[in-house]
Here is the input.
Amino acid sequence: MQVKDINETVPFYVESVEINAPKDFVFKFLSDYQKNGTWIKGLKEETFNKVDGNVGSTFEEKIKMYGSKEEYTGKVLAYEDGKMYQIEIGSKWVDFKIEYDFEDVPTDKTHLTETAWILKGTSLYKLFKSIDRHILHKQLLKLKEVVEADYKASK
Here is the structure.
């Protein structure tokens, strides 16, 4: 199957969580690729090629999910320290753009919003949207859990 350009203008996934940790702590945690294995289920291997300023950094991930191994490649599209982190990530089936937006909440909490768009996909990409939403939702909840535990341990 051939991957074709889709470039959806409307995101297929948007969700927010409140994390019991300061915004700068959450941002540093999320943008540290070495911590990805703590919240991305099935992540077996990751390489990250960082460039100055972070935008343009590239990465490769090997993930085992539902008994299948997939390889993903990606790059950092935007990076605003403490405010926003945006990546493009894709496999042989689909390419996504994912954006994380960070807002301060009083008393050392963070409002984190994750938004995802499909950029490219095979003819079957529509069938997998609900699965991808489920995966992103589970990852966001796991991220919240591990960031809060890490912040609590750092005190």
The beta strands are 4-5, 13-19, 43-49, 58-65, 68-80, 84-90, 94-105, 109-121.
